[in-house]
Amino acid sequence: MTKVFLNGKFVNKEDALISPMDRGFLFGDGIYEVIPCQNGRPIGLGLHLARMNDGLKEIEINYIATADEWLKNIEQLISQFSSTSVAVYIHISRGADSKRSHAYSNNVTPTVFAYGFEIVPSQTVDRNQAKGFKVITTQDLRWQRCHIKSTSLLGAVMHFQQAQDAQKDEVILYNDAGHITEAATCNVFVIKDGIIMTPKLGNHLLSGITRKILLSSLAKVGGFSVLEQDITLAQLEDADEVWLTSSTKEVGAVVKIDEKTLGDGKAGPMWERAQTAFNRYKFSL
């Protein structure tokens, strides 16, 4: 029987009970992280926990996650799986209050939950074998604090469902100015004439951990031209390659945007170099 972590204890998943008065349930009032693990090793653990702690501080939830404590919990959660590719989902809500009120109290005890689940293994770095992602584009209609990894994901859920309804893998979003922000569940990279571009950080997109590891890996390997800048919808449509980065996709190659096929419809040669660089350094941060 699968065990999950709830408020300091490992319990059977079927016995993990959370109050209906929990603000995470009532308001989506919380922070979450998804930490990928390959061969029993978490990827970017320190970066994930730092972002989680920053988010908790920003929304004023009084809880600090230490790396040593979480590493032990993560190891126990992933030990239940025979797969070498597992992720751990961590969810920290403000906790259960005595009444439903938009205003929150500092006296509420946070609810801390985590569980493991299998993910797709790292792809073979071969553009002829790599999965190609098909996406649509649409205007970004989410809220203006996307830099917070909030459990309140309705905006992202609705955008992602647009892609599912169109029988596509993802949706790439653009703002009122026609600039790319991110995808519903991923960061975006656009490659043109050997230059790698990704939207600069701000409140309009999440500072992805895979994005950060990839940028660091490219810098360590060297020989790449990388720009963090505004990217227009026209630049996206004219790209040689487009990548999506996330904890569960690592570096995913987009092969079709709306009705346009990119290149020969396969992952591109720059993708091979980028995924190779990511693989080389993904455990070092």
Brief summary:
The chain has 285 residues and is α+β, with helices and mostly antiparallel strands. Helices cover 26% and strands 29% of the residues.
Essential attributes:
D-amino Acid Aminotransferase, Chain A, domain 1; globular; 9-stranded mixed beta sheet; D-amino Acid Aminotransferase, Chain A, domain 2; 26% helix; alpha+beta; 285 residues; 2 domains; single chain
What does this structure look like?
It is a single chain. By secondary structure, the chain is of the alpha+beta class. It has two domains: 3-118, D-amino Acid Aminotransferase, Chain A, domain 1 (2-Layer Sandwich); 132-281, D-amino Acid Aminotransferase, subunit A, domain 2 (D-amino Acid Aminotransferase, Chain A, domain 2, Alpha-Beta Barrel), CATH 3.20.10. Helix content is 26%, strand content 29%. It is built from seven helices and 15 strands. It has helices spanning 23-27, 45-58, 67-78, 154-165, 209-221, 233-237, 269-281; strands spanning 3-6, 9-12, 30-38, 41-42, 85-93, 111-118, 132-139, 170-174, 180-183, 187-192, 195-198, 225-228, 241-246, 250-257, 260-261. The strands form two sheets. Strands 7, 8, 9, 10, 11, 12, 13, 14 and 15 form a nine-stranded mixed β-sheet that branches. A six-stranded antiparallel β-sheet has the order 2-1-6-5-3-4. A hairpin with a 2-residue loop joins strand 1 (3-6) and strand 2. The mean pLDDT is 96.
Question: What's the arrangement of secondary structure elements?
Answer:
Elements: E1 3-6, E2 9-12, H1 23-27, E3 30-38, E4 41-42, H2 45-58, H3 67-78, E5 85-93, E6 111-118, E7 132-139, H4 154-165, E8 170-174, E9 180-183, E10 187-192, E11 195-198, H5 209-221, E12 225-228, H6 233-237, E13 241-246, E14 250-257, E15 260-261, H7 269-281
Parallel strand pairs: 7-8, 7-14, 11-12
Antiparallel strand pairs: 1-2, 1-6, 3-4, 3-5, 5-6, 8-9, 10-11, 10-13, 13-14, 14-15
Helix pairs in contact: 5-7
